[in-house]
Structure formats: structure tokens, C-alpha cells
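agent: user wants the structure for MarR family transcriptional regulator from Halorarum halophilum. delegating to structure tool.
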Amino acid sequence: MKARSEFRDRADVEVAVLDALVARADEGMTVLELRSGVDAGIDELEDALATLKEDGLIEVDDDGERVRIFPEERVIPNPGEAPDEEATIIDVIRDRFGL
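agent: tool returned. relaying C-alpha cells verbatim.
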């Protein structure tokens, strides 16, 4: 699943982070999981996370054991909402295997 279309006009790394988080919206992701799921260096990932946090598009939950990052509700498409673009084979594989 991808982030809503109104949030896709951002830097590529930011969009990739939002898409990864939306795909795992219920359980969230750690920075390590994001790092393995988004094709970006750690500095790019940190910058993207900082920008998304500043813009109020992600929330961070620290339960004392692990820090998990979640997309804000407004970023997640409504059930049945048609995506703006067709999924590529890579998107289908990512969704299928939870990458």
C-alpha cells in the first residue's frame, strides 16, 4: 500500500519512507527496518525522518524497549481508495513479503 497521493510530491526518500510505513501502519517500523526497506543511506534516512516529523506526517513511539515509527492517519489511504498510479512488480513483491 502507498501513501495518499497528496503526500507523494516530496523527495524520493521521504515518499519511500511514507510508503514503507503505510504498508506496515499497524505495527510500525524501527529505524533498522526502515533502513533495510528504503533504498537510502543512513544520513538521507535521518534527514527524511526529521522532515516528515517536522511536517507532522509521522509519529514516534518509544515504549522503553524499542522506538517504532508510524505514519499519521491522514497519510494512510482510506479502504477502497484507488491509487493514483499502478503498482509495479517491485511494489507487489514488497507488499507481498512485507519489505
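agent: one observation worth passing along. The first strand starts at residue 58 and ends at 62.
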